[in-house]
Write a structure and sequence with these properties.
Elements lengths: L12 H5 L2 H10 L2 E4 L4 E4 L2 H9 L3 E2 L3 H7 L2 H6 L1 H7 L10 H10 L4 H5 L2 H14 L6 E2 H6 L1 H11 L6 H15 L8 H25 L5 H12 L4 H32 L1 H9 L4 H10 L7 E5 L3 E3 L2 E3 L4 E4 L1 H4 L34 H18 L4 E2 L19 E3 L1
Parallel strand pairs: 2-8
Antiparallel strand pairs: 1-2, 3-5, 4-10, 5-8, 6-7, 9-10
Helix pairs in contact: 6-13, 9-11, 9-19, 11-15, 12-13, 13-14, 13-15, 15-19, 17-19
Bound molecules: protoporphyrin IX containing FE.
């Protein structure tokens, strides 16, 4: 294979829809690949991806260099958005990260997460009741997008009827952070989304300060008051991050997972026959073509990898889904096996920034997959052609036309 054919082009529709032939070729032949188009290193082997995610030779602060590279006119267009994003712990290195994470952890106690299970079951049943019989519907829009949205509303303590409004804000912020799409006024839209979401949370935080409830916002407000640590803006930023970080990722797990299950009838039948397989099935849906395409890093200390010099300030894409198919770690990595064990996928990241919502996401999958299959054994795709989100960071189907 020539070096040129290994160029990973995320703007190419065929690559977006099925990135694996290219990624797995890179994994085999060019594991530290410089992509001229991305102007970044692309890492695809399990050990390298895991290493990059946890390495102190890498920084997660890719926001600041990007912001500085914008022309001054564009900088001022996204000033408020950046004000909050720069307070997100995903973009902070230690010691700021350590402090923020410790405070935010108070909101993710096992008690708080476990208490959400009955709500997840109720939401799942309510949405499944509404699916039409004998008509085509979009499983993403009608179901997979709504479950995690409503669950996060419950977790944070936001009234459920605000979901569509906040989702619209989140989608606008997404134009700035996670998307290769070039919408003409994406900066203005993202800034407006951030402003509206921040104003919403500012008001809710003020209400909870006066009258606390049993929800995450109240817990974080209290964490602030006891330790005098989270500022008002950090509280707002944390609420925005939880909403943003937990919604689309879990939507993609539920949508991508159901797509795999309905496309592999034997595996769906196995799960229906044995409820104990729910947990390993979720792990396999996370691993194989799961919701984490890649995570970005910036080289903090120049170092060599596979004979290439990764220079300070170079950008790096750690390709999680490719790593999850590394044959040196996973037997028969391309096979969808809901009983796979061990399953050491790194879909929730690795090291200091390991996902704080992993227990919640796993619980949603465990409730949803068996319930959908039990209630609608005839659920099927209407077409085999699936359109995927045009981004390398998140991985998930844009729509899933299905029928019961
Ligand atoms: C299937 C669903 C999910 C996936 C695949 C996922 C994936 C990830 C990954 C890969 C990271 C590490 C980022 C990095 O290393 O740069 C991360 C971090 C994080 N996730 Fe998730 N996530 C999911 C669900 C959730 C949920 C439901 C929440 C909250 C309710 C959440 C909150 C967070 C937070 C706060 C962080 C930042 C941790 C830090 O920087 O220390 N995630 N997630």
């Amino acid at each position: 294979m020539t070096h040129d054919s290994l160029v990973f082009d995320p703007t190419d529709a065929a690559t977006v829809n099925n990135p694996y032939p290219t990624l797995l070729a890179l994994q085999r032949d060019d594991p530290a690949h410089w992509s001229p188009r991305l102007k970044a290193w692309v890492l695809t082997r399990y050990e390298d991806v895991r290493g990059a995610l946890a390495s102190d030779q890498m920084s997660v602060n890719r926001l600041e260099p990007f912001y500085k590279s914008l022309p001054p006119a564009d900088q001022s267009r996204v000033a408020e958005l950046i004000h909050y994003l720069s307070r997100w712990l995903v973009f902070r290195d230690p010691p700021e990260h350590t402090r923020l994470r410790k405070l935010l952890m108070t909101g993710f106690s096992a008690r708080a997460v476990n208490a959400l299970r009955p709500g997840i079951e109720e939401i799942t049943d309510m949405l499944l009741d509404r699916l039409p019989r004998g008509e085509t519907f979009d499983f993403v829009n009608e179901f997979a997008m709504q479950v995690p949205g409503l669950v996060i509303m419950d977790l944070l303590g936001v009234p459920r009827d605000q979901m569509l409004r906040l989702k619209a804000c989140s989608d606008r912020i997404q134009l700035f952070i996670g998307s290769a799409r070039n919408s003409p006024n994406k900066y203005d839209l993202a800034e407006a989304g951030a402003k509206e979401m921040a104003a919403f949370f500012r008001e809710l935080i003020a209400e909870r300060r006066i009258a606390p409830k049993d929800d995450m916002i109240s817990t974080l407000v209290a964490a602030r008051d006891e330790m005098d640590a989270l500022s008002e803006d950090e509280l707002i930023a944390a609420a925005m991050l939880v909403l943003f970080g937990g919604h689309e990722t879990t939507t993609n797990l539920l949508a991508g997972g159901m797509f795999k299950l309905v496309s592999h009838r034997d595996q769906a039948d196995r799960l229906r026959a044995d409820p104990a397989l729910a947990r390993p099935a979720v792990e396999e849906c996370l691993r194989l073509d799961g919701p984490s395409g890649s995570m970005a890093r910036v080289v903090a200390v120049s170092h060599e990898l596979h004979g290439k010099m990764l220079g300070k300030a170079d950008r790096v894409f750690a390709m999680i889904n490719a790593a999850n198919q590394d044959p040196s770690v996973f037997d028969n990595p391309g096979a969808f096996d809901i009983g796979r064990t061990p399953n050491r996928h790194i879909t929730f990241g690795f090291g200091t920034h390991f996902c704080m919502g992993s227990a919640l996401a796993r619980m949603e999958g465990e409730v949803v997959f068996p319930r959908v299959l039990d209630r609608y054994p005839t659920l099927r795709m209407v077409t085999e052609d699936v359109d995927w989100h045009p981004t390398m960071i998140m991985r998930g189907p844009r729509a899933l036309p299905m029928q019961i």
